[in-house]
């Protein structure tokens, strides 16, 4: 069963991805589904473990960088209350 999802991307990435999908006779939705299926079909623990194919780099703008934020439950709670002004 298909479900609708709203995603936001840089316009130039969307245009490149649409062109790539069209060149491969697949819709942008199915391309996104394919990529998400690949990402979730293995037991990757972090984004750093996931191999990025050359063709993904072709549709990306610039070098991909993953920022790992390690925050504890306590630090998240403190950040939340600091933003709330309490």
Structural account:
There is one protein chain. This protein is an all-alpha fold and 86 residues long. The chain has one domain. The protein is 51% helix and 0% strand. It has four helices and no strands. The longest helix has 13 residues. It is elongated. The model has no long low-confidence stretch (mean pLDDT 79).
In summary, what is this structure?
The chain has 4 helices and no strands. The chain is mainly α and 86 residues long.
Radius of gyration: 17 Å
Task: Please report the total strand number as a whole number.
Answer: 0
Shape category = elongated
Flag low-confidence runs: none
Beta-strand percent range: under 5%
- Our measurement of the CA-to-CA distance between the termini, rounded to an integer number of angstroms, reads 44 Å
Task: Please identify the structural class as seen in this structure.
Answer: mainly alpha
Helix content: 40-55%
- Mean residue pLDDT: 79
Largest sheet properties: none
Q: What is the number of domains?
A: 1
Order of secondary-structure elements: HHHH
Number of helical segments with 4 or more residues: 4
What distinguishing features does this structure have?
mainly alpha, 86 residues, 51% helix
